[in-house]
Design a protein that fits this description.
This protein is mainly α. It is built from 18 helices and no strands. Mean pLDDT is 84; it is low at 1-21.
Length: 431
Amino acid sequence: MPRPTGGSSNDGICVPLMARSNHNTRGQCLVLIAAFLGWMFDGLEMGISPLVARPALQDLMHHAGGGDQFIGPWMGRITALFLVGAAGGGLIFGWLGDRIGRVRSMALSILTYSIFTGLCYFAREPWHLGALRFVAAFGMGGEWSLGVALVMESWPRGKRPLLAGVIGAAANVGFVLIAVLGRYFKVTQTSWRWVMLAGAVPALLTFFIQLFVPESERWKESARQRTARPVKEILSAGLLKNTLLAIAFASIALIGTWGSVQWLPLWADQLTGGTMPHAKANTQILSGLGAVTGCLLGGVFGGGLGRRPAYFSLCLLSLLLCGLLFRFFDQYGAWFLLTVTLVGGVTSAFYGWFPLYLPELFPTRVRATGQGVSYNSGRILAALGALTQGQLVSFYGGNYAQAGAVITLIYLPGLILIWFAPETQGKPLPE
């Protein structure tokens, strides 16, 4: 008996399944590209500050002599404003992400940080720089939580550790790119404004996001089932412990980074007496390359070793390496740059761990808000760390190393607090 020419009875099932699979894979890739680029440009914007801060403040404070005893406190204030703005953005854009969707909110956050970074070109006083960085930081704080939520909700569980590292590394890729620009474009008191203007370029990414990136199906299903009240829920009895612990974990890592490691280019500039314009760019490039590697490994480390042992190990290594750098180096050179690379890697590995762990602490309906509030509330405490570092620099007569040695003791409480958190290795994302 001849076989039917229309194909087997399974064809009608297999073809739609294959088409759906291809569509899902394409959508997942677009989500990953958008989140990676958004966080990469976010890192580029963050990397602008340590690169241009000293020449910019010397230019804006020429009437005060532009000495480090004046620049240190202003650097601390601007960094603190940036971090507080990022915390506000994490709340506002995280809330928007849970209410109107991850994709639209992410496009708005990128547009915000791009435009207001570009407007820094027109700053005429240190407080102008601080105010514009404050508003730009709203967008930067929002983008992280939205991009992480979108990726983790779109990809299968087995891919999460690797993707967490990729997303964590994205910001440091941007950090390195702006440092490379500083390597070949001398950032001086007369040229720093052009670097700020270039910070407006990521606004173009919003068109790609709006046109091509699919919304999270998990979020759409959650939104159909119930109206989210994310702020109220993450502070309710069921999630409050997770929220407070996540804030503590983020605070420790962010204080270590923003209170000391972000100041390494300024310290390098000081060690060379400002006679080697490339010193701060070299320091930032190597710190950033170390950070890219650390972030890529941070997610994998957490996926293999377990969430809690990984965080404990990163706190211990950061404490030891920062102690070595800040307490035993007083000259710029090859060993200094090697240690800077290691410090950049270990202290940034946390940012590969956070995209893995924080989404596992909150259900879908409040995930963007929970992550945004936790991670960016840590930035408020990191703002206090930055202010403290600025005051310590002034107290130690402009000595960045002595101030950094004090601030990086913050990793000590992390060695204890992590054991009060839930271990989520091998568990699905909570719905």
